[in-house]
Amino acid sequence: MTVGVLTRRALGGSLAAASLIGLCPARAKSLIVPDQQLRFTVLRNGCEIGRHELRFDTVGDELAVHIEARMRVSFGPITFFRYHHQGVERWKNGQFISLQTHTDNNGEALAVNARRVADKIEVAATNLAPQILPGDALPLTHWNIAGMSRPLFNPQDGKALRDMSRRAGPDRVTLGDGHVVAAVRYSLDGKIPIDDWYDDNMIWTALQARVKDGSTLRYVRQV
Question: Does residue 181 carry a pLDDT above 60?
Answer without folding.
Answer: yes
